[in-house]
Amino acid sequence: MLLKELGEFGLIERIRRRTPKGRGVRVGIGDDAAWLESRKRTFLITSDLLIEGIHFNLKWTSFYALGYKSLAVNLSDLAAMGASPAYLILSLGIPVDFSAADIEEFYRGIRSLASRSGVALVGGDTSASRRFVISACLVGHCAHRPVTRGGAKVGDDLYITGTLGDSALGLRLLKKRGARLGDKNHAHLISRHRLPSPRLTAGKLLARQGLARAMIDVSDGLLQDLTHLCKASGTGAVIWQEALPLSRAYRMTAGAKDLRDALTGGEDYELLFAVRPRDRGRLEKAKRRLGVAVARIGRCVTRRAGITVLDRRGTLRSLSTAGYDHFRDKR
Ligand code: ADP
Ligand code: MG
User: Fold this and answer.
1) Which residue, by CA, sits nearest to atom 2 of ligand 1?
2) What pLDDT does 177 receive?
3) By C-alpha distance, which of 88, 72, 69 is closest to 29?
4) Pick from 273, 269, 250: nearest CA to 260
5) Which pTM does this prediction carry?
């Protein structure tokens, strides 16, 4: 059925019927505002905007993956503060020629990740639009102190979860139509691009145990987000090139020597965090419970020393740090 036939309120009613209520929700979808109650008093709120043609292209993503990813990017922001997600507000601008089934698929992607991560959809807004526009706002809780970007000190170790560059490489394959069907490595890279895993368990544990002193999620490329962390903390950083964690799929596709996407590729949604050297042992013990591997990739140095990447011989690599910047880059 076309949305033209279903209408705005028909669509909202369908969404409402399929949405479970969730903890602490007194009134969810269907009134003028959501009514939520909670005894935990530290709230963290984040919001992200995804626009067709800028953030995604319907030629190489499915509605399911798009729904999933719209939530994943917000979950990643809360993970980077060490928070637990709770409530989602989702506003959509939808082209009138979309079918109701497209939007159903989109919500199926949302629900699959929401139920897994304890998120209740409690409201949103809907409008017609020339292009598909997705605005997601996520509210979370924290029973401990949230971790900001600003707590790293000179001498701290720098760690990253998971592997770097997979998503950017996956996107490259999609854009070039270079993916080979049935190639496991290609499938892995593309799936990392389409269905990123927000590191909620790791973020929460690192925060709760006071291990991460500063933390950020890597959405715009390692060097770009490292720059944000360093700026907020008033430090510089050294990154050891050979310590960067690369997936087997990355090594087989780009080659272990091509670190461009690992250093500056976007949308990995891994966590970059700073830990005091004397907490190395404690981190080692916590590792099994993080739900993802972590690698020590460098160290915080003085702000004056800036941000550098060293190769195996300790030689400085020339850097163009920049990851993605919406107003500078046209991709
Ligand atoms: P308003 O006139 O206040 O904008 P709406 O008719 O847009 O009210 O929304 C009615 C209810 O449906 C509200 O609870 C709103 O939060 C919810 N809602 C609207 N659009 C969406 C959507 N895309 N996803 C989830 N909930 C929605
Ligand atoms: Mg409305």
Assistant:
1) 32
2) 83
3) 88
4) 250
5) 0.91
